[in-house]
Design brief:
about 170 residues, 5 helices, single chain, NADH Oxidase, alpha+beta, binds flavin mononucleotide
Length: about 170
């Protein structure tokens, strides 16, 4: 898919078929995430791929608004490593850039995905850290539910001329 087309047509998908996502596609998606920009090129991310049903079924008990995970064949938790980015100031922003790459790659490959907010909600971060046994230095930032889409969501018009400011406010 052409880049601008992928950006314009990506939507959050919350209904999935039960078809498993092949490992080859998972690798491509995570690889795309790893090509995101990061401050001082620290690339301070890790990705936890969750595809075991019994673990997936525990996830919606932690963050709210995550019921679609009961149906999703796959989740990817994007985590920031505060040993790889010691000052930590851009850790979450770097991981957000990786998350957006991940969503666009999933869309390009014909998958559907939705970003589920984790950081900065302390109870979600603690719950997922415990469930997925994260070490102390690893912060869970965003959770993506993925799978083959079982719904079609059309792209809205989002361009707003009034949000543009040339040279000064
Ligand atoms: C930081 C963040 C947190 C989000 N958390 C949730 C969530 O908990 N549950 C959910 O269903 N969607 C969540 N979303 C998806 C948004 O609802 C969605 O991106 C927004 O409505 C725009 O729709 P679109 O993704 O189809 O363009 C989140 C998105 C972001 C960026």
């Amino acid at each position: 898919m052409e880049t601008l087309q992928a950006i314009r047509t990506r939507r959050s998908i919350r209904k999935f078929t039960s078809r498993p996502v092949p490992q080859e596609l998972i690798t491509k998606i995570v690889e795309a995430a790893m090509y995101a920009p990061s401050a001082r090129d620290t690339q301070p991310w890790h990705f936890i791929i969750v595809n075991r049903r019994e673990i997936l079924d525990e996830i919606p008990k932690v963050p709210p608004y995550a019921e679609m995970v009961y149906q999703a064949p796959l989740c990817i938790l994007v985590c920031g490593d505060n040993q790889l980015e010691r000052k930590g100031k851009y850790l979450t922003i770097n991981c957000a850039a990786a998350t957006q790459n991940l969503l666009l790659a999933a869309h390009d490959l014909g998958l559907g995905a939705v970003w589920l907010g984790v950081y900065p909600r302390r109870e979600r971060m603690e719950g997922l850290s415990k469930l997925l046994q994260l070490p102390e230095n690893i912060l869970p930032i965003s959770l993506i539910a993925l799978g083959y889409p079982d719904e079609k969501v059309s792209p809205p018009e989002r361009f707003k001329q009034e949000r543009l400011h040339f040279n000064k406010w």
